[in-house]
Every structure is written in structure tokens, then in C-alpha cells.
Write a structure and sequence with these properties.
Helix content: 55-70%
Strand content: under 5%
Shape: flat
Radius of gyration: 17 Å
Structural class: mainly alpha
Order of helices and strands: HHHHHHHH
Oligomer: single chain
Number of strands: 0
Largest sheet: none
């Protein structure tokens, strides 16, 4: 079992539900995952790729810089003790970090990046 689940799951679902799932190891189906807000959409297996691509295109249609900044904020904000800390954490601290954080562009580049992230969101334990 991926040990980060004890940190991440209570941030996504109710703490009581997270405890019960982690302690019992109970497997849940898609309907229950949707009910407890572990997932925000349920689609049939044969519609999964089409649904993921629709979502990726929806994201890619946005301003690439705005998507990039939002992703940085989402990565920093959950662990920040305050808004000020979250903003400070978003500031690049070196030239190498600035280069590393540059957005890859928009359109197809954003589509490819988003499709990978959607895949990893489905199976976070693959690390």
C-alpha cells in the first residue's frame, strides 16, 4: 500500500471515512467512490479514454499561463499554513528553479501534460 494515502485520503474525503477505509482495507466500487467524493465523475470503462480526453481538451482550451499558475498554486496551497506562506512558496528561489517552472506552452503541449496527469490521478499509488 502506498503510505502517502494516510496523508492524502483525509484531505479528499471525510476523516471518518478515510479512517474506516484505511483500517479495513475495504475495496469500494465506483458508485461509493463518487458518493464519498473520492472521484468527481464516474464513466463506463469503454468511455474512460473519451471522457479523459474531453477533460484534457477543456483544460487545454484555457490560457496556458493561467493553467500553469493554477497547477503551481494547487501543489503549494494544501501544505501551506496560510495564504501568505502559499504565495511565498510559489516564488522561484533560484535561476534553475525559474527555468524548471516555465510553462511548456499551450494547445497540444498542455493537452499531453494534462492527459498524463489525469492518468496518474486515477492510480496515485503507481507513484
Amino acid at each position: 500500500m502506498y503510505m502517502g494515502i494516510s496523508y492524502l485520503l483525509p484531505k479528499i474525503v471525510d476523516a471518518g471515512v478515510a479512517r474506516e477505509l484505511m483500517l479495513t482495507g475495504r475495496i469500494i466500487d465506483a458508485d461509493e467512490a463518487y458518493r464519498i467524493k473520492l472521484v468527481h465523475q464516474v464513466v463506463a470503462p469503454d468511455e474512460l479514454m473519451a471522457a479523459a480526453l474531453r477533460k484534457a481538451r477543456e483544460i487545454a482550451a484555457n490560457n496556458a499561463y493561467g493553467v500553469w499558475q493554477t497547477k503551481i498554486g494547487l501543489k503549494a496551497a494544501p501544505d501551506a499554513p496560510s495564504l501568505r506562506h502559499a504565495i511565498e512558496d510559489r516564488k522561484p528561489h533560484s535561476d534553475s528553479q525559474r527555468l524548471h517552472q516555465q510553462p511548456g506552452g499551450g494547445g497540444a503541449s498542455a493537452l499531453g501534460e494534462t492527459a498524463v496527469q489525469l492518468g496518474s490521478a486515477v492510480r496515485p499509488w503507481d507513484g
